[in-house]
Write a structure and sequence with these properties.
The structure holds 2 protein chains of 2 kinds.
Chain A lengths: L3 E4 L2 E4 L4 E8 L5 E7 L6 E7 L2 E5 L6 E7 L2 E7 L7 E8 L7 E2 L3 E5 L1
Parallel strand pairs in A: 2-11
Antiparallel strand pairs in A: 1-3, 3-8, 4-5, 4-9, 5-6, 7-8, 9-10, 9-11
Chain B lengths: L3 E4 L2 E5 L4 E7 L5 E7 L5 E7 L2 E5 L2 E6 L4 E6 L8 E8 L6 E2 L3 E6 L1
Parallel strand pairs in B: 2-11
Antiparallel strand pairs in B: 1-3, 3-8, 4-5, 4-9, 6-7, 7-8, 9-10, 9-11
Classes of the chains: A mainly beta, B mainly beta.
């Protein structure tokens, strides 16, 4: 069982839909991350939150909007996505920047 | 050239064999990580190293900071070790820079 919980596990949406991915951890970690992973490729960093503030945005298109409502929760709001956005979206958390990251099982997103 | 290079890209082994996966990096780092990803997605952090050697069960990770090189060894390999093994480094802040991964298949 993973200590970082992501919901939903699978999501299929049309290009005009609005949906959100959720990530939750109760380990008291103060850094949380969103990654995008395409098949047979390593994860690509999208966003980093540190102490509930956005600290890194890797030039991600504005159709992806992160939110950190509190220290345990991280959301990724999706709107007007493109077919090339279909991927596995992974959330991770760590106690601090120099500690190992704990990953969730990911949300597999398909854009029709 | 990628900042993190792994070899081999693919590895097939027979159950019981000793396995080595290599990782070279070209930037200064504060730590190196070995991660395991099974089909279906979830990533598990195996080791975080900044020097020397670490051991956990049948897994051993070593790092040579001067040579910018790390190895992951699996002793007495088992089919359940089949996964993608990813080397990642932390050159600055809290960003991980990933290698391309090594796909390991252990046959029984």
């Amino acid at each position: 069982d993973t200590e970082v919980t992501q919901t939903p596990k699978h999501l299929v949406m049309g290009m005009t839909n609005k949906k959100s991915l959720k990530c939750e951890q109760h380990m008291g970690h103060r850094a949380m991350y969103w990654y995008k992973q395409k098949a047979k490729k390593p994860p690509e960093l999208m966003f980093v939150y540190s102490y509930e503030k956005l600290s890194i945005n890797e030039s991600v298109p504005s159709r992806f909007s992160p939110e950190c409502p509190n220290s345990s929760l991280l959301n990724l709001h999706l709107h007007a996505l493109q077919p090339e956005d279909s991927a596995l979206y992974l959330c991770a958390s760590s106690q601090s920047s120099n500690q190992p990251q704990h990953f969730g099982d990911g949300t597999r997103l398909s854009i029709l | 050239k990628n900042e993190v290079e792994q070899s081999p890209q693919n590895l097939t082994a027979q159950e019981g064999e000793f396995i080595t996966i290599n990782c070279s990096y070209s930037v200064g780092i504060s730590a190196l990580h070995w991660l395991q990803q099974h089909p279906g997605g979830g990533i598990v952090s195996l080791f975080m190293l900044s020097s020397g050697k670490k051991k956990h069960g049948r897994l051993i990770a070593t790092i040579n900071i001067q040579e910018k090189h790390s190895s992951l060894h699996i002793t007495a390999s088992h089919p359940r070790d089949s996964a993608v093994y990813i080397c990642a480094v932390t050159p600055y802040g809290n960003k991980l820079v990933f290698g391309a991964g090594t796909i390991l298949r252990v046959k029984s």
